[in-house]
Design brief:
Elements (H helix, E strand, L loop, with lengths): L1 E6 L3 H12 L4 E4 L14 E3 H7 L7 E5 L1 E5 L5 E4 L3 E4 L1 H14 L3 E3 L6 E5 L2 E6 L2 E11 L21 E10 L10 E5 L8 E6 L3 E7 L4 H13 L16 E6 L8 E2 L2 E3 L15 H19 L34 H10 L6 H9 L5 H11 L9 H10 L4 H20 L2
Parallel strand pairs: 1-2, 1-11, 2-8, 5-13, 11-18
Antiparallel strand pairs: 3-7, 4-7, 5-6, 9-10, 10-11, 12-15, 12-16, 13-14, 14-15, 17-18
Helix pairs in contact: 1-3, 1-5, 2-5, 5-6, 7-10
The protein binds flavin-adenine dinucleotide.
The site of flavin-adenine dinucleotide has 40 residues, from helix 1, strand 3, strand 12, strand 16 and helix 5.
Amino acid sequence: MYDVAVIGQGPAGGIAALRLAEAGHSVIAFDRKKRVGDPIHCGEGLGKIALEHTNYPVGDWAIREVKGNRIRMPNGKSVGLMSPGYSIHRWGLDRTISDDAVAAGVERHENLKISRVTKENDHWSLFSKDGKVAKAKQLVIAEGRVPNIVTQVGLKGNDKLRLLPGLQYKFKTSDVDFPDTDYFDFYIDPMFAEGYVWVFPRDGIFNVGIVSTNGAKKGLDYFCREHMSVEPDKRIKNELGDKQNGGLIPRDGPIPQFATKDAYVIGDSAGLTNPITKGGVHVGMLSGEYAAIAIRNELGTGTLTPPSHAINCHELRGRYWDSCGKSLHPDLESHIWYDRILKRQPWTQQKFVDQSKLIYSLDKRTLNLIGDIYEGRNYSNLPWHKMLGILIKNPDLLPMAGKLLKIKASLKVTETYGW
Ligand SMILES: Cc1cc2nc3c(=O)[nH]c(=O)nc-3n(C[C@H](O)[C@H](O)[C@H](O)COP(=O)(O)OP(=O)(O)OC[C@H]3O[C@@H](n4cnc5c(N)ncnc54)[C@H](O)[C@@H]3O)c2cc1C
């Protein structure tokens, strides 16, 4: 019998397996992919803060540094979010974390899908289509956006209706008419319903992708032609040989409960993405760390103490995080501690989810006026006089001021706690 079974070796499951093996536990990990990391479901952008919060070292999967993000309005004017990050090889990141876990002692099985789990007294049994494959005292569910096992342990999984479709192409920089800068650009426009188009500069290549509920391919093809003067057919294969990549993203906040006795849900399976950027690698890795802490406590090799480098309850102050003033009892049951500490993270607060969604509900005129107000400044540097001047000229837009402040607040959470 293993101490822990981890289902899924994306960044969330990889970190959980790694941290538990480092603590000396016997860990078995599964991924249904033939090769962990392949195919890619990602725009391949990662904030530096993700590595700081999870104390994971930067590797050769990070291929270019960027200074920050620019949120571009339909008129091209932008609002800045100057939180630095990397363009990454996403398969390289997933593979490296999982390989580190194997080097630390994890027994990894690729090309093996767990279809069923059952609880028997003091342990979980895991089954593939061919029968029982393992027994483990603790279970980590890291299956990604469409989990099958979460409901089998008695928790509520991601609602499929809450998933946002994404699609990405790659172009050689020399094939497009687009400036190569050290920024990630996000184009918000109601024509990309509930989402945006991104352009991420890399090593002589641009990643150009979209999340949208009204036809991702149509929106992306339009953007390539209109904004980059390139035919979509000019796209090149990625390093794994695919001419496009995509997938689904949880967008509406987390599942109601993150753990039950001896079973922990992490990453996309728990609906843990940043609702404003839809990025999920950072919060996935962080939830993997927290699950590992809870499980170590349960198995007697650790205590329920957040790592000093991760977001810590005591750091969370102000109006979003009132509940964080209360301490997390060290004698809580491990799974309850895990559930509570995740619910105290800024990015799981319903208020943040609601504020984040606001920007995707604005019409073109309002977005353009926000662009006019900011004209490239960082989101925190709101020019009040300019905003008042524009509101006086357009009194029907007065409600926009309140929305703008809420959007500003959600960008602050994203800048401070990662995207
Ligand atoms: C188009 C697109 C672009 C994105 N861009 C970004 C971005 O730029 N930056 C960012 O931070 N986030 C981005 N995201 C989100 C990010 O990819 C996810 O949030 C992240 O992958 C979540 O990590 P995870 O480990 O929870 O899940 P995943 O990475 O999905 O890993 C889950 C793993 O579990 C395996 N698995 C599933 N079920 C089973 C089973 N039953 N048995 C065994 N194995 C199983 C899967 O094969 C998979 O390898 C993007 C997502 C999409 C779709």
